[in-house]
Amino acid sequence: MSELLDNSEREFTIIKADDLHIAGYASIEMVDKQNDLITLNALSKAVKKYMTDPKYRNVMTNHSNVQVGEVVSSYRDSGGK
After folding, report:
1. How far apart are CA 3 and CA 1, in angstroms?
2. Is the pLDDT of residue 72 over 90?
């Protein structure tokens, strides 16, 4: 198990930008700490349904009611990535 650092050892950078995109996996097919598994098939169906209505695609900060962004279906930067 990895060692946790206290706050004095952590470094955070606050990025403020009008055009900031963050990419990564929201979920993967893997047994979690509660011994639950969501299959790729179930994830695929859920994502399709989730993306159909923009009012549900908001990104909140730390499980709060503060919206910090929106989930987009795809994005390509000026470098083609």
Report:
1. 7
2. no
Averaged pLDDT for residues 54-73: 84
Instruction: Tally Cβ neighbours within 10 Å of residue 69.
Output: 13
- 3-state SS, residue 49: helix
Tokens representing residue 76 in the block: 């390509």
State the number of CA atoms in the 13 A half-sphere of 72 facing the CB.
9
Its pTM stands at 0.56
- Contact between 27 and 38 under an 8 Å Cβ cutoff? The reply is yes
Q: Say whether pLDDT at 1 is over 80.
A: no
Cα separation, 9 vs 2, whole angstroms: 15
